[in-house]
Each structure stands twice: as C-alpha cells, then as structure tokens.
Amino acid sequence: MDIKLLIEEALKARKFSYSPYSGFQVGAALLAKDGRIFTGCNIESASYTPSNCAERTAFFKAVSQGVRGFSAIAVVGGPKDAETLDFCTPCGVCRQVMMEFCDPKSFQVIVAKNPEEYQVFTLEEILPMGFGPKDLEREREL
Ligand code: THU
C-alpha cells in the first residue's frame, strides 16, 4: 500500500470541504481491497445535524457503488486557514461505520499532518471492543 499517495488523495479531497459553520476542513481517502480509492470531505448544513464527516462521505460513496471490502483510510483535517495540520482522528460515529465494513484487526487508519508525518492504527486500536455485524450474527444463530 502506498501510504503517501493515500495521504495526498486525502489532502486533495480536503480542498472540497464544505464547512462554513465550523471552518474545520477534513479530507479522507479510502483504499478498497480492489485497489480503488474513494475520497471524501466533510459536508455541513445550516441545520447542523445533517452534517457528514469526510470519512463517512468516502465510505458512503464506495458502498453506494457496490464496494464493501476496504484495507485502509487516510484522514487529514484542521482549521481552514491553518498553515500546518495537526493529527485529526475519526469521530466515534465514523469509527462505528468503519466497524460495519472493515476487519478491526487489519483495517488501517492513517491520521496524517502531511505525506511525511503520519500515524497508523488498526481499527481495533481506535475502537476497542467495538460492536459490529458479527455480534448480531451470533444472536441470529441462537
Ligand atoms: N469532522 C470530520 O469530517 N472528520 C473527523 O474525523 C472529525 C470531524 C468534521 C465534522 C465537522 O464538519 C467538522 O469536522 C468539525 O467537527
């Protein structure tokens, strides 16, 4: 996997961020198992609640095109006018969406400031004891 390329795609996607209310711009690049990259940005709303994070935008684009297998996501975010970025970690809701479609032990979450400065976590590390589809499968078997 080319981590730097994935971060560059996330940085490009961040430029499309629609975030007039928070002024916090986020970009994500989701790598599918078939090699395709789905990008996303955060999209806010005047009524606040319907806002969508960059990570979920990327997931929903992919899933709505029939893709359900993923290996990694790169995330970059920070205030609109920031000269340099700090690490931006996915919110709890996005972690739960990752849990729906990804293997917690192998799916990699890359949080980056730029293509040279990044940290890599597994989904399990950022969502310990997550509740996912497997938990409901077991219930159905009983
Ligand atoms: N946001 C994301 O898109 N991803 C994250 O990982 C953290 C937060 C967005 C949501 C909202 O539009 C803005 O950043 C401020 O919370």
- Which series of helices and strands comes N to C? HEEHEHEEHH
Strand order, sheet with most strands: 2-1-3-4-5
> Would you identify the regions where 5 or more consecutive residues have pLDDT less than 50?
none
Number of contiguous helices? 5
Give the distance, in angstroms, between the N- and C-terminal Cα atoms: 39 Å
Mean pLDDT: 96
Helical/strand content category:
alpha+beta
Number of strand elements: 5
Strand content: 15-25%
What would your notes on this structure say?
This protein has five helices and five strands; from the N terminus they run H-E-E-H-E-H-E-E-H-H. It is of the alpha+beta class and 142 residues long. It has helices spanning 3-14, 54-63, 92-101, 123-126, 133-141; strands at 24-32, 37-41, 70-79, 108-112, 118-122. The radius of gyration is 15 Å and the shape is globular. The chain binds tetrahydrodeoxyuridine (THU).
Briefly say what this structure is:
With 142 residues, the protein is α+β, with helices and mostly antiparallel strands. It has helices at residues 3-14, 54-63, 92-101, 123-126, 133-141, and strands at residues 24-32, 37-41, 70-79, 108-112, 118-122. Tetrahydrodeoxyuridine binds at residues 19, 22, 24, 26, 42, 44, 51, 53-55, 75, 77, 88, 90-91, 94.
Q: What is the fold's blueprint, element by element?
A:
Blueprint: H1 3-14, E1 24-32, E2 37-41, H2 54-63, E3 70-79, H3 92-101, E4 108-112, E5 118-122, H4 123-126, H5 133-141
Parallel strand pairs: 3-4
Antiparallel strand pairs: 1-2, 1-3, 4-5
The structure holds tetrahydrodeoxyuridine (THU).
